[in-house]
Amino acid sequence: MLRSPGVRVSPLLSMTCKACWALFLVCLPVTSFPYFPEEMGGLALVRPLSLYPLLLLLVLFTLPRLFSRPVPKTLLTLIPFTLIALASSLLSTLQGIEPVLGISVGARTLRALITLGIGCCIYYTVSLFPRSTQDLRASLRWLYLGFILALLWGSLQAVYVISFDSQYYQWLKSLQAYISTRTLFTNRVSGMTYEPNWFAEQISVLLLPWLLASALSGYSAFRWRWRWLTVEWLLLVWSVVILVFTFSRAGLANLIGLVAISVLFLRPKRAATPEKPRSGRLFWLRRLIEASLVIAILIGALYAASVKNPFFTRLWSYWGEVQETSLLEYFDYIGFGARLMYSEAAFNLYTDHPVLGVGLGNFAFYVEEALPDRLLANNPEILRILTPDIGRNRLVTPKNYYLRILAETGLVGAAAFVAFLAAILGCALALFHSRENNPDFWGKAGLLALLAFGMAAISFDSFAIPNAWVNFGLITAAAWTAPRPEDQDHPSRAR
Fold it and tell me: Coil, helix or strand for 85?
């Protein structure tokens, strides 16, 4: 894995890199680790614990590997976006923009570029480290181990959500202080993350695509199985149950979308027989009925669990409580109005700066003038932004990955990022249509991972959150190793 042509790698270095790789994957569920020095982003909300082993991997493996052997061409497609983001950000420092909340454009730009750099480092490291199917399977096992710990911790939190006990809650709350910078919620499960929405996003984006693909293809990263039952099946059921207790609207919408696509399009087709010939219309009707039944079960479980979270019932109670309904008022009612206004402000910024945007991280300096002309009484979050409290030093972001890229890097940056996503999609499709090296699993997992990112990106915008970058890296690594597994020691013969 760590050999370069003509270079002997010491066993100690190899073992150190493997240990760092395992720690990196196991630590992924911890995203707001409290013990971070200020120089490494100790004041930011996103503080991945996996950044520590990642730094060692960068020095010991990633940087030497980039310059010693050929790399997947997909890695090169990310470079144009980073260069465009850098150019846009540097140009923004020349605009003479006044600081906001004591934060200057230069400081904001530097922080945003560092978060993008973290994401790129994660992608490059994950893409390059696995060099065989055995490495990929081992990587999945370490990833699952990290989530087993996170799901176990989330299960302990679900106990007081179901039946609240103050003493038990205070005990878990004191332990959570060693894991996350934010305290636990009394009526929602946060796992090891900053808040329940982050945990739900972790499960739906980083875990469910691989588990669903395992269930669909019968592939398992573990040797143990009992008939059709595998470790991945157990983790799938466990993660869905815990996801319900996060009461995250975005996370549960992602779950329903992933399940619907899996049942409709990715399930293996039964071979037609003379006794039971396959009819196109009946086939798709049966698939639609099956998907509807699964989604109905999920919604029923969600409805039953919502008894413990009255705020969550607003998703459907609005239409019965309000006589004169409107879509905008509905978004305000369910607490989504502020995010909708952020999105509109980001789009307004894009229309004003369509080519290169306003610079990475600089949305906050323009948001007040870009907000839509709408009554703010129903959006206290917007009012807090316009009239901040003393000591508040966090700037607002668009909360939407697509619109952030459009607003801050313009159409040029957005086109470059879409090209990068298209390259990842090409890797997933190549695996999906291939017949070698267990591509059925990797292809389906890749497509589901991209679908999960596509849905989740509507509600998050941080480049430093590892979820999507890890998925992109694993898809690239699988495509790089899958075509010729016998050539894994000769990457120059691979693509």
Answer: helix
CA distance to 166, 174, 260, 278, per residue, from 285 (Å):
50, 52, 14, 12
Q: Is the dihedral of CA 264, 265, 268, 272 positive or negative?
A: positive
Q: Where are the alpha helices (DSSP H) in 93-184?
A: 105-128, 133-162, 166-176
User: Bridge partners of 230?
Assistant: 225
Angle at 318 between CA 317 and CA 321, to 5 degrees: 85
- Characterize 364-390 residue by residue with b for buried, 16 or more Cβ atoms within 10 angstroms of its Cβ, and e for exposed: bbbbeebbeeeeeeebeebeebeeeee
Contact 34, 178 (CB under 8 A): yes
DSSP output for 378-405: T-HHHHHHHSPPTT-------S-HHHHH
C-alpha 194/C-alpha 199 separation (Å) is 8
- pLDDT for res 269: 67
pLDDT at 284 over 50: yes
Q: Which helix (H) or strand (E) holds 230?
A: strand 229-230
pLDDT over 60 (residue 227): yes
Helix (H, G, I), strand (E, B) or coil at 478: helix
> Span 345-359, mean pLDDT?
95
pTM: 0.90
Q: How far apart are CA 58 and CA 178, in angstroms?
A: 26
* Residue 424 CB burial class (10 angstroms; 0-12, 13-18, ≥19): buried
Residues 239 and 211 sit within 8 Å (Cβ to Cβ): yes
In whole angstroms, give the CA distance from residue 410 to residue 359: 9
CA 374 remoteness from chain centre? 32
Residue 300: per-residue pLDDT: 81
Question: What mean pLDDT do residues 332-352 have?
Answer: 87
Q: Can you tell me the distance from the alpha carbon of 199 to that of 151, in angstroms, rounded to the nearest whole number?
A: 10
List the chain domain ranges. Answer: 11-269+279-314+399-484
Q: What percent of the chain has pLDDT over 90?
A: 59
Task: Return phi, psi of residue 358, to 5°.
Answer: -100, 0
Count of positions (residues) in the chain: 495
CA distance 82 to 408: 12
Mean pLDDT estimate for the chain: 86
pLDDT at 139: 97
State how far the alpha carbon of 266 is from the alpha carbons of 207, 242, 334, 408, in Å: 17, 24, 33, 36
pLDDT band at 377 (very low <50, low <70, confident <90, very high): low
